[in-house]
């Protein structure tokens, strides 16, 4: 399995705008063959931090 974690630092007050902009790409990635999951998480400590966790089947 290929497992990827990415932390994004979003500008103040732009978190919802960032997530909305990522919506189409998120849906497209989830539809890719071999995609196991593609999930966004919001930090409870830092309102400007958004974390992406994704996994793909490894041939």
Strand content: 35-45%
Q: Average pLDDT, to the nearest integer?
A: 96
Query: What name is given to the CATH topology?
Result: Alpha-Beta Plaits
Radius of gyration based on Cα positions: 12 Å
* Strand numbers in spatial order across the main sheet: 1-3-2
Task: Spell out the helices and strands N to C.
Answer: EHEE
Overall domain count: 1
- Overall structural class, as computed from helix and strand content, comes to alpha+beta
CATH level 1 name: Alpha Beta
* Biggest β-sheet description: 3 strands, antiparallel
Helix content: 25-40%
Label the CATH architecture.
2-Layer Sandwich
Are there runs of 5+ residues with pLDDT below 50, and where? Answer: none
Tertiary shape? elongated
- Total number of helices: 1
Descriptive notes:
- The chain has one helix at 15-30, and strands at 2-9, 35-42, 49-56.
- The chain has 59 residues and is an alpha+beta fold.
- The chain has a single domain (2-56), classed as 2-Layer Sandwich (Alpha-Beta Plaits), CATH 3.30.70.
- Strands 1-3-2 form a 3-stranded antiparallel sheet, covered by helices on one side.
- A hairpin with a 6-residue loop joins strand 2 (35-42) and strand 3 (49-56).
Give a brief outline of the structure.
27% of the residues lie in helices and 41% in strands. It has one helix at residues 15-30, and strands at residues 2-9, 35-42, 49-56.
């Amino acid at each position: 399995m290929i497992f990827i974690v990415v932390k994004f630092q979003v500008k103040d007050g732009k978190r919802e705008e960032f997530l909305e902009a990522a919506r189409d790409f998120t849906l497209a990635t989830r539809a890719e063959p071999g995609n196991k999951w593609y999930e966004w998480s919001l930090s409870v400590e830092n309102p400007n931090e958004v974390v992406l966790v994704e996994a793909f089947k490894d041939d």
